[in-house]
Design goal:
This protein has helices at 6-22, 35-43, 59-66, 77-83, and strands at 25-26, 47-52, 70-75. Helices cover 45% and strands 15% of the residues. It is globular and about 30 Å long. The protein contains four helices and three strands; from the N terminus they run αβαβαβα. Helix 1 (6-22) crosses helix 2. The chain is an alpha+beta fold.
């Protein structure tokens, strides 16, 4: 079993809720102090960072060229398994 800090567990729950609700936690939704914990979750394979672009068919190319690409963090199967025995934190 992977030992996670309470901050990492809370963030992992937030990623799961956001993933279920609207397809992932956007990097713009992270608080500054959460970036290090998110990097740790990604390094452990509990969360994956995916590029997120606009909805329009040609929007991806336009946003990529303009440098407006965003990142969405999504929970992995390993992340779901890590949360199996964890108690969900209160809503943020």
């Amino acid at each position: 079993m992977i030992a996670l800090s309470s901050a990492e567990v809370a963030l992992l729950w937030e990623v799961r809720r956001s993933d279920e609700d609207h397809g992932g936690l956007r990097d713009a939704e992270l608080h500054e102090e959460e970036y290090e914990s998110m990097q740790q979750l990604c390094d452990l394979g509990l969360v994956e960072a995916l590029g997120a672009y606009g909805e329009a068919p040609d929007g991806e190319e336009d946003e990529r060229e303009m440098g407006n690409a965003a990142v969405a963090y999504r929970i992995t199967a390993a992340g779901v398994n890590a949360l199996r025995d964890e108690v969900p934190p209160p809503e943020r």
